[in-house]
Design goal:
Elements (H helix, E strand, L loop, with lengths): L1 H13 L4 H12 L13 E6 L13 E2 L7 H5 L2 E3 L6 E4 L2 E11 L2 E5 L1 E3 L5 E2 L2 E8 L6 E9 L12 E6 L7 E7 L9 E6 L10 E8 L2 E6 L2 E6 L14 E9 L15 E12 L1
Parallel strand pairs: 3-6
Antiparallel strand pairs: 1-18, 2-7, 4-5, 5-6, 5-18, 7-17, 8-17, 9-14, 9-18, 10-11, 10-17, 11-12, 12-13, 14-15, 15-16
Length: 279
Amino acid sequence: MNIINQFKTRAQQLSIIPFYVVFSFFVFSSCSTDEKQTVATFNNLVMSDEFDVNGKPNSEIWNYDIGTGNNGWGNGELQYYTDRTENVTVQNGVLLITARKESFNGSSYTSARLLTKGKFEQAYGRYEARIRVPYGQGIWPAFWLLGANSDTVVWPQCGEIDIMEYRGQNPTTILGTVHGPGYSGGNSISKSYNLLNDRFDTGFHVYGIEWGPEYINFYVDDVLYNQITPSDVTGEWVFDKPFYIIINLAVGGSFVGSPNSETVFPQTMLVDYVRVYKK
């Protein structure tokens, strides 16, 4: 818990500097002049979970997906998602999502997947979360958005924005990606961001997007590393409607492969805060 408190204190210090101020400055000081980039200033906070109350996550914001979904949530994942405190809880100002190796309802692993579906959905704005990811072959944490019409429109027509995806076996690299009709799965539009002389599992980082009509900008900390516009996709642009948030820690699946003998369990994804802004 000392580690959690240490990073929480750092988060409070960092919160003094508005995310949009740091990012806006970096864009104009670091990007080459031949890159066309749109940066919005979204500074009206409309949703925030600082995870300041111990116990269950705030039920006014979060729902849970339970079980194994269809074909391991469409990806051949190995975990059974639960809402048990063993897999998801808030302690000392941090949301803990823990993947465990255990026999549970026919699965060999358990974990948790939280979502704001039906409780918070928004088109456009800035979405950000401060997260410390776990490590290991077959470990797959993600912070992402799914179209609010996902119950009535088959994926990928509903649209998906992966603000942060991470393969546990590649601790220096994360990806920002969009999926839509004609550009999903292995044909998604994606770009990676690599840390130099550091790893994502050794500390907290802020992962975010600024999303407006006809663009989505992807950030890690104070770095704008990717912009996706309608001209970049190979099909219909479907990012013009409300989306909801998903935060999950998967085990195995087509993106990361299965855990191996060197993968240590339990593994925990730590989330310091989730914040959403609009103009």
